[in-house]
Write a structure and sequence with these properties.
By secondary structure, this protein is mainly α. It has six helices and no strands. Helix content is 50%, strand content 0%. The longest helix is centred in the first third of the chain and has 15 residues. It is globular. The model has no long low-confidence stretch (mean pLDDT 92).
Length: 113
Amino acid sequence: MRDMISFCGLDCEKCDAYLATVHYDQALREKTARLWSELNNASILPEHINCYGCRVEGIKTVFCESICGIRQCALKKGVAICDDCSEMEKCQTVGMIISNNPEALRNLKEQTT
């Protein structure tokens, strides 16, 4: 199982917060903070853009650490990824990710094969 596939199937290695963190890229950190602030109608500062991945040890963005309902649910249920959950097929929370990102569903299915 690839550690950098998040609980919902998104690939953390493609996330701008992860890329900015591992490459010490302040310009990408600033660009991501601006974009995420606009998208979420919230004040997100460049120093908030630090993450080593959803399912691995280390720093995470505030959203990934505390706000993401998918991550909180998976941790509570003790599943490695959402595809391990018997309720995934009818789950509206992860369903929003999967319906907008077919790669996420493929990633989940590949983790269990």
